[in-house]
Structures are given as structure tokens and as C-alpha cells.
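Support reply, case 0932

Customer input (verbatim):
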Amino acid sequence: MKAAVFVVFSAALAASSLAGQEFPQAEITNGSIKAKLYLPDTEKGYYRSTRFDWSGVIPSLEYKGHTFFGQWFPRYDPKVNDSIQGPVEEFAVTQGWDDAQPGGTFVKVGVGALKKPEGARPYSSYTTYDIVDSGKWSVRSGPDFVEFTQELKDAAGYAYVYRKTVRLAKDKAVMSLEHSLRNTGTKVIETGVYDHNFYMIDGRPTGPDFVVKFPFEVKAARSLAPLAETSGKELRFLQEFQARNTAQSDLTGFGAGPADYDMRVENRKAGAGVRQTSDRPIARINFWAPRTTVCPEAYINLRVEPGKETAWRIDYEFYTFPAEN
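Our regenerated output:
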């Protein structure tokens, strides 16, 4: 009964916070998966802050009667860094921050050229910076895909063409994020990128019904007690989270190859899960979960020389299984 109440509360919260607002969007389906995506727009876009990549924001995805993403935060503001939904990504290392003078620009892939403020404080993902140039965004779509392209011209020697395609497989319940990054500037682009995920299976609260699975013996770098624990190849939750609860730790145990980039998040009562894999090795895993969302965040490292291009892919396989009573 508690889970049902939570779902209704979440839906009402999202409806109230977004009432009367319309955002550029697209819908895609392959027959089994149906997803809605918000599109980048400097004036009307759902997300206009400076932490996350503006492309691939997915406020809803449905598969076999289950939902996997939604509004996990209490108040919406397009300029707040965490007002975002779905398997969104952050390029966690900026380009040119150290070299920029106050008032000068630095670059964050997927966002654009940002203004370095006065003062000696270090860069923070949780600060919203002034956007000097968001680049040129273009969108191409079909029934089962949306392709986003951001082109940023020279900003303190940094320039790039970043492309991300959200694609649904034609014959299975898989959504792919296909990326490429071409360096068109004069300086090396070196960054880490991770997918925050923001999983919300049927809007159920974080608690013992959830489990996160890995292909390796997983360990938490710091204790998750009394809320959660790692055991063998699983991260388990020991109690239902309340509004004040948050669990966070780096996770260790993964190897050097891409085979260990293989994470599953399941909810036993819902009988639904998602498997996330990639063609790149893991550089780091951060785990974070409040009451409303479960977020294993796997990082990969990128280095692109001037004139070169790199590509990477993340796949999400959605599935069901017999639910526990």
C-alpha cells in the first residue's frame, strides 16, 4: 500500500510542478518500449542549467506496463543543476577552467562555453554558471530514434562536434545511447563522462524491494549502513528510505575491461528491471540513492586529440520477471 501511495504522490508532484508548461519534445517507440524525450532549447527547453548534457533527457519510458524514469526531485526549475530526468549524462571534467581568468570562458561538453566567475573557488558541478555560448544544437528524429548534435566553435582553443543518438532496437527491448565526439579545436579534450541514470521503477521508494547487481564482487569504499550494504555481487537495501535518507559511496571491485560495465537494477515487488552495459571499461563507480531514485553511476574516461574523433555506446535492456507478493 505504501508503494501505491508513493506513486500517486510522485505523479501529483510532477503534474503540479510542471503545470501549464510545454517543452520541445519527441516520442519514440519500437512497439514494446515507448519513450518521451525533451529536446535542447535555449529559451524553452526543459533543462537549461550547466551540470548535465542537454541531450537525451527522458522524462518517461514504459515497457510492459512498467515505468523506469520520472521526476525524482520536489521542485522544478530549468536553471537548477539537478532539475533533470532519465539516464542523463555529465561530462564531469571541464576544459580550460584552470587557464581561464575571472570573466573568461571554460567549456563543458554537452552544455557549451561557460563564464568563470570572480573569486578563487574551485569549479563545482553544483554551481550554475552563466552560459556564454551554448553552441548550435540540431535534432533529427524518426519513429524509433532521436539524434542530437551540438557544434561548439572555438572557445579558448576548444571546439567540438558532439553527437548522441537515442535509439530503440527493432527486435528487442533495448535502448541505446550512441555517442561520438570530434575535436575540431586546437587543444586536447580530456574528460570523464558518466550516466546518472535516475532509475525510478514504477515510482517505488528506495528500500529492500530494490537490488543492484554487478558481474564482480562489489565493495563500498565507505559504509552504507544502516541503509544499505554490499554482499557478494549485489548492493542491497536494508530498510525503506524516508525523505531525509541518502546513501552514497564509491564502489570498487571492477576490472580493466568493458565486460565489468554490466549493472542491473531490479525491483522485486514490481517484477521489473533494467540491465546497463557499455563498450567501454569503467573508470569509477559512484553510487547514490535518496528515497526517490536509485543511481549507480559508472564513469568512463575520454581523451580526444585535435582533429580526432572517439565513439562509445551504452545499452539499456528492460525486462520483467515474476513479482514477489
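We compared this against your earlier run and they match. Two observations from our side: Residues 1-17 have pLDDT under 50 and may be disordered. The domain at 1-91+136-325 is CATH 2.70.98.10 (Beta-galactosidase; Chain A, domain 5). Please reopen the case if you see a mismatch on your end.
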